[in-house]
Inverse folding.
Protein backbone atom coordinates (compact mmCIF):
# COMPACT_ATOMS: atom_id res chain seq x y z
CA UNK A 1 0.00 0.00 0.00
CA UNK A 2 2.88 2.38 0.78
CA UNK A 3 4.47 1.72 -2.62
CA UNK A 4 1.16 2.44 -4.36
CA UNK A 5 0.82 5.70 -2.41
CA UNK A 6 4.34 6.82 -3.36
CA UNK A 7 3.76 5.85 -6.99
CA UNK A 8 0.54 7.89 -7.11
CA UNK A 9 2.18 10.88 -5.43
CA UNK A 10 5.12 10.94 -7.84
CA UNK A 11 2.77 11.07 -10.81
CA UNK A 12 0.39 13.60 -9.27
CA UNK A 13 0.70 17.08 -10.80
CA UNK A 14 -0.98 18.70 -7.77
CA UNK A 15 1.69 17.21 -5.50
CA UNK A 16 4.48 18.23 -7.88
CA UNK A 17 3.22 21.83 -7.91
CA UNK A 18 3.09 21.76 -4.10
CA UNK A 19 6.71 20.55 -3.99
CA UNK A 20 7.76 23.37 -6.32
CA UNK A 21 5.94 25.92 -4.14
CA UNK A 22 7.54 24.56 -0.95
CA UNK A 23 11.04 24.68 -2.46
CA UNK A 24 10.53 28.19 -3.87
CA UNK A 25 9.17 29.48 -0.56
CA UNK A 26 12.09 27.92 1.31
CA UNK A 27 14.65 29.49 -1.03
CA UNK A 28 13.00 32.92 -0.83
CA UNK A 29 12.77 32.61 2.96
CA UNK A 30 16.50 31.91 3.19
CA UNK A 31 17.27 34.82 0.84
CA UNK A 32 15.06 37.08 2.95
CA UNK A 33 16.89 36.00 6.13
CA UNK A 34 20.23 36.71 4.45
CA UNK A 35 19.05 40.15 3.30
CA UNK A 36 17.70 41.09 6.73
CA UNK A 37 20.64 39.50 8.59
CA UNK A 38 18.10 37.62 10.69
CA UNK A 39 18.91 33.94 10.52
CA UNK A 40 16.81 32.48 13.30
CA UNK A 41 16.95 28.74 13.83
CA UNK A 42 13.62 28.77 15.69
CA UNK A 43 11.84 30.35 12.73
CA UNK A 44 13.63 28.03 10.33
CA UNK A 45 12.74 24.93 12.33
CA UNK A 46 9.11 26.07 12.63
CA UNK A 47 8.92 26.56 8.87
CA UNK A 48 10.57 23.21 8.17
CA UNK A 49 8.18 21.44 10.56
CA UNK A 50 5.21 23.16 8.91
CA UNK A 51 6.37 22.15 5.44
CA UNK A 52 7.16 18.58 6.49
CA UNK A 53 3.75 18.29 8.15
CA UNK A 54 2.11 19.60 4.97
CA UNK A 55 3.85 17.00 2.82
CA UNK A 56 3.18 14.19 5.32
CA UNK A 57 -0.49 15.19 5.45
CA UNK A 58 -0.71 15.06 1.67
CA UNK A 59 0.82 11.58 1.71
CA UNK A 60 -1.67 10.35 4.29
CA UNK A 61 -4.53 11.96 2.39
CA UNK A 62 -3.41 10.11 -0.75
CA UNK A 63 -3.56 6.89 1.28
CA UNK A 64 -7.09 7.87 2.34
CA UNK A 65 -8.03 8.47 -1.30
CA UNK A 66 -6.69 5.03 -2.25
CA UNK A 67 -8.79 3.37 0.44
CA UNK A 68 -12.01 5.40 0.16
CA UNK A 69 -12.05 6.65 -3.48
CA UNK A 70 -13.28 10.12 -2.49
CA UNK A 71 -14.16 12.68 -5.19
CA UNK A 72 -14.62 16.27 -4.00
CA UNK A 73 -15.24 17.89 -7.38
CA UNK A 74 -18.82 18.61 -6.35
CA UNK A 75 -17.39 21.41 -4.15
CA UNK A 76 -15.50 23.06 -7.03
CA UNK A 77 -17.30 25.40 -9.49
CA UNK A 78 -17.57 24.06 -13.05
CA UNK A 79 -15.45 26.83 -14.58
CA UNK A 80 -12.51 25.81 -12.38
CA UNK A 81 -13.00 22.14 -13.21
CA UNK A 82 -12.79 23.03 -16.90
CA UNK A 83 -9.75 25.23 -16.28
CA UNK A 84 -7.95 22.43 -14.43
CA UNK A 85 -9.06 19.84 -17.00
CA UNK A 86 -9.78 17.11 -14.47
CA UNK A 87 -12.55 14.57 -13.93
CA UNK A 88 -11.70 13.55 -10.36
CA UNK A 89 -10.24 15.35 -7.38
CA UNK A 90 -9.51 13.42 -4.24
CA UNK A 91 -8.99 14.87 -0.79
CA UNK A 92 -5.23 14.78 -1.45
CA UNK A 93 -5.50 17.02 -4.51
CA UNK A 94 -7.96 19.34 -2.76
CA UNK A 95 -5.57 19.90 0.14
CA UNK A 96 -2.64 20.22 -2.27
CA UNK A 97 -4.49 23.16 -3.85
CA UNK A 98 -5.13 24.73 -0.44
CA UNK A 99 -1.50 24.26 0.58
CA UNK A 100 -0.28 25.70 -2.74
CA UNK A 101 -2.41 28.80 -2.15
CA UNK A 102 -0.96 29.12 1.36
CA UNK A 103 2.56 28.76 0.00
CA UNK A 104 1.80 31.27 -2.79
CA UNK A 105 0.94 33.93 -0.21
CA UNK A 106 4.15 33.14 1.63
CA UNK A 107 6.14 33.28 -1.63
CA UNK A 108 4.67 36.69 -2.49
CA UNK A 109 5.38 37.92 1.05
CA UNK A 110 9.00 36.78 0.81
CA UNK A 111 9.33 38.30 -2.66
CA UNK A 112 8.07 41.62 -1.29
CA UNK A 113 10.40 41.52 1.70
CA UNK A 114 13.37 40.56 -0.52
CA UNK A 115 12.73 43.70 -2.55
CA UNK A 116 11.60 41.95 -5.71
CA UNK A 117 9.09 43.86 -7.83
CA UNK A 118 5.55 42.89 -6.90
CA UNK A 119 2.58 44.71 -8.47
CA UNK A 120 1.11 47.30 -6.10
CA UNK A 121 -2.37 45.73 -6.05
CA UNK A 122 -0.91 42.33 -5.18
CA UNK A 123 1.28 43.91 -2.51
CA UNK A 124 -1.74 45.68 -1.00
CA UNK A 125 -3.69 42.41 -0.98
CA UNK A 126 -0.82 40.61 0.72
CA UNK A 127 -0.50 43.45 3.24
CA UNK A 128 -4.21 43.29 4.08
CA UNK A 129 -4.26 39.49 4.25
CA UNK A 130 -1.20 39.32 6.49
CA UNK A 131 -2.45 42.20 8.66
CA UNK A 132 -5.66 40.26 9.24
CA UNK A 133 -4.04 36.85 9.73
CA UNK A 134 -0.50 37.47 11.06
CA UNK A 135 2.01 40.14 12.00
CA UNK A 136 4.59 39.03 9.46
CA UNK A 137 4.65 41.90 6.95
CA UNK A 138 5.77 45.23 8.40
CA UNK A 139 3.49 48.21 7.97
CA UNK A 140 4.61 50.81 5.46
CA UNK A 141 5.89 54.09 6.81
CA UNK A 142 3.45 56.91 6.10
Amino acid sequence: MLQETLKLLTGNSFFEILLIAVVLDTILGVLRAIKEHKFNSCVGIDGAIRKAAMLLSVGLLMLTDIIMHINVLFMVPDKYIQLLGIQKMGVCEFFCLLFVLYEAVSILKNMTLCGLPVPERVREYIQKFLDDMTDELPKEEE
